[in-house]
TrEMBL record, chain A:
Coiled coil: none
Membrane-spanning ranges: 21-39, 59-82, 103-132, 152-178, 190-209, 229-257
Organism from which the protein derives: Paenibacillus glycinis
Protein name: ABC transporter permease subunit
UniProt key word Transmembrane: yes
High-level lineage: Bacteria, Bacillati, Bacillota, Bacilli, Bacillales
The keyword Metal-binding is annotated on this UniProt entry: no
Pfam family, one: ABC2_membrane_4
Domain of life: Bacteria
TrEMBL record, chain B:
One Pfam family per UniProt: ABC_tran
InterPro entries: AAA+_ATPase, ABC_transporter-like_ATP-bd, ABC_transporter-like_CS, P-loop_NTPase
Organism per entry: Paenibacillus glycinis
Domain ABC transporter: 13-241
Keywords: ATP-binding, Nucleotide-binding, Transport
GO molecular function, one term: ATP binding
Matches recorded under PANTHER family: ABC TRANSPORTER, ATP-BINDING PROTEIN
Protein name, as recorded: ATP-binding cassette domain-containing protein
NAD in keyword set: no
SMART domains reported for this sequence: AAA
Similarity field: Belongs to the ABC transporter superfamily.
Length: 264, 311
């Protein structure tokens, strides 16, 4: 079989040859630079590179989620709405592999955005504030976590990336199901933000089924400062719930994409 | 790698009882058709007769309810990747990635089939006449240029079957003529089978060796297209446009000439036409034109499908 990587290269080309993609990278960089400089300018002695990095991560990751959802929603639906899906599928490749190449390109895009934010905020704040020599995340950030601050930040990024994968996979599924980028973006964003807002309220409900809702498990970094969150749920339980959702999303996506008649 | 790597004896494509049922409606009903090498086969039918659905099933975009399509002996159902390997196609409009350049589009599709070199890409770009504009974004292209880019991606991997759905849409007369000549050349020189759908009947007459006519999802006829040169080999109706028709009819009594509006109508073969012409000129009658009256494909088609539903 010839090179599957060529398919991923194609999908990358379709992502990075768009101006919109570079605007997304630009916005992330702009926010990191802006927030870092402002934090330094208005610093009253309490700030360190770790606090600024942590602040940037906690709200810019929302933006990364939105951007990735947009690219993911366009990935399949865009091929249908432009009609290019017909030329894409009539090649000596199975539909599954074509879909996989798209999915891999999306995960790479999400990693690149995250890496850009991680590296730029680390380097910039190292320059602005100097190396923060706090021994633990607890000293540096006031969170109940005994790891070193750098290792804590890495864990935060990895856990947020896991949550991101879930939303991207959901958006990818909706994109495949509805073949409409707008609908996929709207619906995934609704589910994501509704979850953020409502998860606090929902977790107060004393029903067992609440534990199995997707959005209660998307904010995995809560587990970094406590072993258990609401309802006595543990990290292991959350990961198991997410794994089940993940398998269902991926299963539906591949099944529908393989079976569907292309009649656009 | 050359065109037409499929063995010579068997037809490049075999449609076997291809059927598509959606809900309770039978869209395509037991279509059986072979396309041999080096043939341009037209696929003719009124709008909604199932042309595009058939093409979509041939290239695996839609599933068949019953039947199978064999391309180079490989089943589209069960050996899709081998079957589609030697197919180049445009399905409906040649939709390309508009935010990419023409070249990037070709690069994209070339990566999906092994063995396409950058020289080959340059070669097809030259062939379809897009050399000057290939590094411009597709969104700046005219419809005709997109059509040509579509042809480029379809022939890039030297297929043994070329499927073109309404390829003359949006082309100007010069473009149509160019495409027609090129398709005939591909079929004759490279031995590839070309399957072209259209509702432009006059186009089909000029382009195709045979025409398959579909109506209401059923194949109603497959016939050979005769060029006017071939028709003239046999005796057929010929009209002589002259200045004095009555005299001409009298003069041509032995050819059983009849008076028609424009002049004299006779049945004659090629040589006789020349003789009659000499006779008329010899008698001082001015000959303005000689026209062979063949029943055009359009007439035949309208007769068969009952007209009406035609665009």
């Amino acid at each position: 079989m010839y090179n599957f990587l060529q398919l991923v290269r194609n999908e990358n080309m379709k992502i990075y040859r768009r101006i919109g993609t570079w605007i997304m990278f630009g916005i992330i960089l702009l926010i990191v630079v802006g927030v870092s400089i402002l934090s330094k300018a208005f610093d009253e002695g309490g700030g360190s590179m770790w606090t600024v990095m942590n602040n940037i991560e906690s709200f810019t990751y929302l933006l990364i989620t939105i951007f990735t959802v947009v690219v993911s929603a366009e990935s399949v639906a865009g091929e249908f709405s432009s009609g290019t899906i017909k030329l894409l599928l009539i090649r000596p490749w199975s539909r599954s592999k074509i879909l996989l190449s798209k999915y891999i390109a999306l995960l790479i895009f999400a990693i690149l955005l995250s890496l850009l934010m991680l590296l730029s905020s680390f380097v910039l704040n190292l320059i602005l504030f100097g190396y923060g020599d706090a021994k633990t995340a607890s000293d540096a950030l006031g969170v109940a976590n005994g790891s070193g601050p750098f290792s804590y930040m890495m864990q935060v990024y990895v856990l947020d990336y896991l949550g991101l994968i879930m939303i991207v996979t959901l958006s990818f599924m909706l994109s495949t199901l509805f073949r409409s980028g707008g609908l996929a973006i709207g619906l995934s964003m609704f589910i994501y933000f509704f979850g953020l807002i409502a998860s606090g309220l929902l977790s107060m409900l004393d029903y067992k089924w609440v534990d199995y809702l997707l959005f209660l498990h998307l904010n995995l970094k809560e587990y970094l400062s406590s072993k258990e969150i609401a309802h006595g749920m543990t990290m292991g339980f959350s990961l198991a719930v997410l794994a089940v959702y993940y398998i269902v999303f991926v299963g539906i996506t591949w099944l529908v994409f393989n079976k569907r008649d292309v009649a656009t | 790698m050359g065109y037409g790597t499929v063995s010579d004896e068997q037809p490049v494509v075999r449609l076997q009882q291809v059927t598509k049922v959606i809900g309770t409606r039978t869209i395509i009903d037991g279509l059986t058709l072979d396309i041999p090498r080096a043939e341009v086969l037209g696929f003719l039918g009124p709008n909604g007769s199932g042309k595009t659905t058939t093409i979509r099933m041939m290239v695996g975009l839609m599933r068949m309810t019953k039947g199978d399509v064999l391309i180079g002996g490989h089943s589209v159902r069960t050996e899709y990747e081998q079957a589609i390997r030697h197919v180049g196609a445009i399905v409906e409009n040649p939709e390309m990635y508009k935010y990419l350049t023409g070249y990037q589009n070709l690069l994209h599709f070339s990566r999906m089939v092994p063995g396409i070199t950058s020289q080959r890409i340059d070669e097809v770009v030259q062939l379809v006449g897009l050399k000057e504009r290939i590094h411009d974004k597709v969104k700046t292209y005219s419809l005709g240029m997109r059509q040509r880019l579509g042809v480029a991606q379809a022939i890039m991997h030297k297929p043994s079957l070329l499927i073109l759905d309404e390829p003359t849409n949006g082309l100007d007369p010069a473009g149509i003529r160019e495409l027609r000549d090129y398709l005939r050349k591909l079929a004759k020189d490279e031995g590839i089978a070309v399957f072209v759908s259209s509702h432009l009947l006059s186009e089909m007459e000029l382009m195709c060796d045979r025409v398959a006519i579909i109506q209401g999802g059923k194949l109603i006829d497959v016939r050979t297209v005769q060029s006017s040169a071939q028709l003239a080999e046999t005796s057929g109706p010929v009209v002589f446009e002259v200045d004095r028709p009555d005299e001409a009819v009298e003069l041509l009594a032995k050819h059983e000439a009849a008076r028609v509006e424009e002049g004299a109508l006779v049945r004659a073969d090629r040589d006789t036409v020349a003789l009659i012409n000499a006779e008329l000129v010899g008698a001082g009658i001015k000959v303005y034109g000689i026209r062979i009256l063949n029943k055009s494909l359009e007439d035949q088609f309208l007769e068969m499908t009952g007209g009406g539903q035609l665009v």
